[in-house]
Design brief:
By secondary structure, the chain is an alpha/beta fold. The chain has two domains: about 240 residues, Aspartate Aminotransferase, domain 2; about 130 residues, Aspartate Aminotransferase, domain 1 (Alpha-Beta Complex). Helix content is about 35%, strand content about 15%. The strands form five sheets. The chain has a four-stranded mixed beta sheet, with helices on both faces. The protein has a three-stranded parallel beta sheet with strand order 3-2-4, with helices on one face. A three-stranded antiparallel beta sheet has the order 12-13-14. Strand 2, helix 4 and strand 3 form a beta-alpha-beta unit.
Length: about 375
């Protein structure tokens, strides 16, 4: 078999019986929408994060959209966020008539640079939306403090970081609202689309629950504008099956990531800047001691990305890019904010490359990846 970029097949083989048992239970009771597994999952995830409420929704994108709708984002309102992320982060802001205001990343983490956030706050700022990229939370205490000074909420885009911790608290429970994704490739993924919203604010939780069912507070009684944003019972059942193995997976992801660092770190150390011809490959720094990372991706910087990717492909090693062009340079979003104000995002977008990574990545495959990378960047 060829090497997998993300090995979901091995994971499935390990949990096959519990997945099928969970699916069979749904097929037996037939409650495919908002069945008992939905509440069971919400209770389990809320307990895991420490948040008072979890509201499952149809996708990570819906989680962000519904979170902003619950905060009553209005046309013309501004949301400060990172440009170095998947399009959904800005997409939901624009869909509601808002304006994304992009702040450059900290090159040590690829997350929004908290030291630059406050200067971008203006009279129309309605929220701050940091992204916990690659599975590592942003500098949430600093961001929360800025938000508190200006009286605005913080929405953590935790699509990649469910399971990570920051100063003793779980990602998704680090701010006013957290939003995550259960897309299949995520550290905790379903077999389709799914997502969840987390908050300890009773009012926001109630709003999110109503919005996800077309704004209904009871059947056919619509108290607010909503969407069809429910996560179906089968997908919740699958996440419940995976949740039993999740702590093991987090520990294994840490082991695999540390082994990459041990095998490659001495040869490809990070010096705080993008790669050059002299530094053809670099590893991003290991997360600081006050937080953990679930390594949704394991990402390096390479100066000649297209050439390196092609040489790795010939060696049987798959790669991916997360993400090649910052959002403030994308045609759909460039008109909203500062195309030239995010130099780190622009430079890193040209050089980031993700290596094969999963909890089930074998040492032999990892050795193959490292050997091929060394040869590809020579």
């Amino acid at each position: 078999m060829s090497m997998q970029f993300i090995d979901l097949k091995t994971q499935y083989a390990a949990i096959r019986e519990r997945v099928h048992a969970r699916i069979d239970a749904v097929l037996e009771h037939g409650q495919y929408i908002l069945g008992p597994e939905v509440k069971e999952l919400e209770d389990s995830l809320a307990s895991y994060t420490g948040a008072r409420h979890c509201v499952t929704v149809a996708s990570g994108t819906e989680a962000l959209l519904i979170a902003l709708m619950a905060l009553d984002l209005q046309p013309g309102d501004e949301v400060i966020t990172s440009p170095f992320t998947f399009a959904a982060t800005a997409e939901v802001i624009v869909l509601l008539g808002g304006r994304p205001v992009f702040v450059d990343i900290d090159p040590r983490t690829c997350n929004i640079d908290a030291s630059l956030v406050e200067r971008r706050i203006g009279p129309r700022t309605r929220a701050i939306m940091p992204v916990s990229l690659y599975g590592q939370p942003a500098d949430m205490d600093e961001i929360n403090a800025i938000a508190a000074r200006h009286g605005v909420p913080v929405v953590e885009d935790a699509a990649q970081s469910f399971g990570a911790a920051y100063r003793g608290r779980r990602s998704c429970n680090l701010s006013t609202i957290g939003a995550t994704s259960f897309f299949p490739s995520k550290p905790l993924g379903c077999y389709g689309d799914g997502g969840a919203i987390f908050t300890s604010d009773d009012r926001l939780a109630q709003a999110a629950r109503e919005i996800r069912v077309h704004g209904q507070s009871r059947r056919y009684w619509h108290t607010r504008v909503g969407v069809g944003g429910r996560m179906d019972t089968l997908q919740c059942a699958i996440v419940l099956a995976k949740l039993e193995r999740f702590e093991w997976e987090i520990a294994r992801r840490d082991v695999v990531a540390r082994r990459y660092h041990d095998l490659l770190g001495a040869q490809f150390p990070f010096d705080g800047h993008e790669s050059t011809d002299r530094r053809r490959c670099q590893l991003l720094p290991w997360p600081s001691d006050d937080r953990t990372c679930v390594f949704a991706q394991f990402t390096v910087l390479v100066a000649d990305r297209e050439g390196v990717q092609e040489r790795l492909k010939r060696a049987g090693v798959p790669t991916a890019v997360h993400y090649p062009v910052p959002l403030n340079e994308q045609p759909a979003y460039a008109r909203y904010c500062c195309p030239d104000c995010t130099p780190h995002s622009k430079a890193f977008g040209k050089q980031v490359m993700s290596l094969p990574f999963s909890a089930d990545l074998s040492e032999s495959d990892q050795d193959t990846v490292c050997a091929a990378l060394r040869e590809a960047v020579r």
